[in-house]
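Bench log. Compound arrived from synthesis this morning; before running ITC I wanted a structural hypothesis for how cytidine-5'-diphosphate sits in the protein. Inputs:
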Amino acid sequence: MKKINIAIDGPAGAGKSTIAKLVAKKLDAIYLDTGAMYRAVALKAIRQGMDTKDREGISLLISKLDIKIRHIGSEQHILLDDEDVSKEIRTPEVSIGASNVAAIPEVRIKMVEIQREIAATTSVVMDGRDIGTFVLPGADLKIFLTASIEERAARRHKEMIEKGITHVSLEEVQKDIVFRDRNDSSRDFAPLSKAEDAVEMDTTKMTLDQVVEKIISLVG
Ligand code: CDP
């Protein structure tokens, strides 16, 4: 089968990861969660007591960083210095840190290099903020997923509770999302934005199956 690259971008909680995973499964492609990579950088910085906005410090950290992506079944695992940190990167503190380190060009350049390498050899459904605009401008299909802020916060909150993270209120989740929406859209280097040739889908009132079906129909 021909190699295919699909880019799914959009703000936090729009359903990118759940949908990208399902689409990847249907197409026999791998799912690459690029957000997890920025989260891993943030986790390392936080563990070292660093400020996640410290460009110089983080750039140095990046030069010695060991991040590996592994797929176990349809699940992506992320290894930081050979430690599986897939769970540890899901806290609100790491979310904010990820958004901060993601604004640092040196970080993005390194992450994008890894992402492009994977896409060059494998069929991949990649989700993130800049996949259609910057990482894979020649992707076969680009989707931009959105949903109302209330819906996105509710989805993310439910997902966290299902994962056993019960100490974060819905209000805090919404505040985190509002902060990251602003931070991710306003940075200079590869901000969150819809590619001109991306298909925009507002998923507020759509079921998962409807979104997945629509994307598969667009693949053709
Ligand atoms: O899953 P969620 O939408 O909450 O976030 P994520 O995809 O795990 O991404 C975490 C943070 O990493 C985002 O808020 C962005 O700042 C950053 N990110 C990015 O800048 N570019 C990407 N391709 C993916 C994530």
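What the model suggests: The mean pLDDT is 94. The longest strand covers residues 67-72.
ITC booked for Thursday regardless.
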